Amino acid sequence: MLETKRLILRKWTEADAESLFQYASNTEIGPVAGWPPHKSVEESKEVIKNVFNGAECYAICEKENNAAIGAVELKLNGHTDMTERDDECELGYWLGQPFWGKGYMPEAAGELLRHGFEDLGMTAIWCGYYDGNQKSKRVQEKLGFMFHHICREAPVPLLGEVRVEYINVMTKEHWEGV
Prior knowledge:
Helix content is 30%, strand content 32%. The protein is of the alpha+beta class.
């Protein structure tokens, strides 16, 4: 478990399925990030078991109620196509719409950057967003990610699409200076 001033980042459990469904069924969230909205609590349970089971995948929870309101993850080598190095990983995240605009995502993602560099020994953390996802772009700017390259034909397998993706990176040296 990781903690910030206002948030707890903890492992997902099946008990989070209803909360996950409540936010992940919103059509404003998944499609812009590359996944379809959840259609049932049962589907959300499957996502918890089979997708949110990564070693560094966390439910984002407000401290006062511990209810899952989003996800943040460091996708380690073997679970990302952004790097093939064991000392690099990819940051991924999403947040339920009622919690947008409160600074929660930079707070949660910032703690995962700290965890990645200080606790896991990462030398670089990659992060991307699809063209048009201004909220994700803004989070990466607030965190200090640096533009690296554009992938003009990025596959989006869960939606059967190809999109433009912007790839950014944060090195440990740059993070230490931010």
